[in-house]
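A further point concerns the way the authors explain their paired sequence and structure data. An entry of this sort, consisting of the sequence and the corresponding backbone structure tokens, reads as follows:
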Amino acid sequence: MSSPPLRVFLTQKQEKILFELNRNQNIPIRTKDRALILRLSSQGWKVKKIAMFLLCSTVTVRKTIHRWNKKGLMGLWDKPRPGRNPTWNPENFEKIEELLSDEQCTYNSGKIQQKLLTEQQVSLSKRQIRRILKKKEYLWKRTRQSTKSKQDKELKAVKSADLDMLELAEAVGEICLKYLDESGFVLWSPVGYSWIKKAIQKKMEQTPKRGKRISICGLLELEKSFDYALVLGGVKKHSYIEIMNWEAEKANQRLLETGQITVVVQDNGSSHTAKIVREKHLCWEKQGLYIFFLPKYCSEMNRIENEWLRLKTDEIAGEMFEDEYDLAMAVIEVVENRAAKKGYVTNRYRFPSKLS
């Protein structure tokens, strides 16, 4: 007389537990397979049918059922496998994670390896350290310089509220709001990323001389206009005064025609705060041009900063120029091209020959 077929009978509670095991992503795959075997057996599937469905042997199915009958839920997990003792534990990396987040320096896998060896006597390879950090959701990426710690938070909050009011006044047509800043371009642009064939290294050949810097002073009226001037070298106080006198003339004309004053938002650069410049403020205000100074170390509040970023990374990145004239022409071209894309007008101030 043949024995009855091997089968498991599950209670509703056991069925629910095994179902949750199957859906849990943190459970080992072998344990999840065993839970599925038990659930199928409980539904009346025979051993051979379960084995064919899961692509395993009938011996595996039978062992799983016998382990359940003998050990219950604990029979679904494997015993700890033999092997060498772990060379590190999570506590070793707690201090490393503090260093990565708090210390004002960068760490590569080599420096972390030395830290672990000298301070905790833990010897790990660089490759293993990188693997552990990736599991902890760390990425190898660029850092950036910051002056946030030098900011006056109270002053920034006050100035930010004032700037919000100016932007609101501009939105309803009470004032004309412009953002002023300077930036620079050199003959050897910093190289960056590019699409290149595999196994080929693209080289940007340097021109014979490094040359002088071409500086640009710009005034951006969002989505409307971009006024600018180019200078060989830096934008000094006398060049800045020339540009602001030109802007004051346009502000005076706007004041007479529309009654709008013009407010220029700028930082505290030395050319903006020099004594000879401050003496011009009253004259400019009579023409309808007012200055709004941003708090120190808060360049992110100046909306023109994004314009420089786009010009340098999207328009003129990775190019080498023979001389300053070619560079100046390229800067003018990219400014005009970006204005055409964004739909605003440009106006360039040309210095008298003795100042250019």
